[in-house]
Amino acid sequence: MTFIQPTKHINILNAVIALLVVALLGGTFLLVIAYNKTVDLSHNIISLKAKLDAVGAQNTALSNQVLATLGGADFQSLASADGLVQDKNPQYFTTDNQWPIASQQ
User: Is the separation of the CB atoms in 103 and 95 below 8 Å?
Assistant: First the structure.
């Protein structure tokens, strides 16, 4: 009895085509992953920007409260309660000009 066996050699063209198909599918898969990561990053940036804007609004509100508390007549009364006086010509520390190279004036 004779068995007919097909040729067992690998056709180079089929191997190259199979390799190109695998590379094409892998590249497509990687491009889809990269696109999804880009979209996720864009959404994260938008949400973080919204949070940053909210923090900025809170900061502005707190700054306005501080200025309202310390501004005007309230500031004068707070300073006088602590024994502070307003000096229009303050005298700062003077530097000794013995070392003119070391003092940058």
Answer: yes
Helices (H), 1-105: 12-70, 73-81
Q: Identify the residue whose tokens are 């990053």.
A: 41
Is residue 70 within 8 A of residue 78, CB to CB? The reply is: yes
- pTM attached to this predicted model: 0.49
- Please, what's the largest Cα pairwise distance for the chain? 121
3-state SS class at 92 = coil
**Residues with Cβ within 8 Å of residue 95, at least 6 apart in sequence:** 103, 105
User: Contact 65/57 with Cβ under 8 angstroms?
Assistant: no
Q: Sign of the C-alpha dihedral, residues 48, 51, 56, 57?
A: positive
pLDDT one-digit tens code per residue, 72-104: 566 677 777 888 888 888 777 776 666 666 655
- Residue pair 95/105 in contact by the 8 Å Cβ criterion: yes
